[in-house]
Amino acid sequence: MIIKPDGTVRRRVSALVLQTLLDKDYRLIAFKEMKVPKSLAKMHYAVHKEKPFFPWLVDFISAAPVLAMVFEGDDVIQGIRDALGATFVQRASSDSLRGKYGIWAGINIAHASDAPETATTEIALWTEEGGLKESSNAEDQAREYIQRYISSGSDFTFELRNVVKTAIEHNDTSTQVLASLKDLFSRDAEGISKKDTDTLSEVVFDFIKEEVQKKS
Ligand code: CDP
Ligand code: MG
Question: Is the C-alpha dihedral spanning 179, 15, 207, 129 positive or negative?
Fold first, then answer.
């Protein structure tokens, strides 16, 4: 599973997601914070390569760091997918992780493998191309991460949803919208460069512009 850039740059959100999953008693056997190279992003999402949203999705997942990890356990795939909730944030139930912390549509904080076969392929891919490694202290690293970030101020979900929704509703693609995204994505992004949170903001802004264009 991967906590996508919109989750990772909000340190509190990624800590809350990790906490929820660790509470389920799965074993965490690999854990790594990393920027995703475009080449890996394209391979990871190869199944979607003919879809209209593919180029955007590749830009999104590679915009800023992610947390890549491997969980092991009984029914872990279904368990994690259930915890995440529906793909589209506005369709995810309000007690699911995407329902609680997702921003809008496919800006949905996390990826999870959808079957044992895809999990096997994805783990091999992220091992070879992303340097993800099994490690006996993965769980300790995750607990340290949670401890460090769980109590940072706000998760900014409400504010970010508001910026995206309002901009789309009012066909507002002004630079003020981009400035608000840059501000909000940098607020709880300890250890992540301004360049990366700005890039993520641009990608979310591209999504807004496409939605506005679709309406006209
Ligand atoms: O991530 P999940 O397996 O739930 O959904 P998917 O259908 O495999 O799509 C992969 C990702 O593409 C989603 O998580 C969204 O981030 C994105 N997506 C999108 O932006 N717009 C769509 N119409 C469908 C998917
Ligand atoms: Mg999928």
Answer: positive
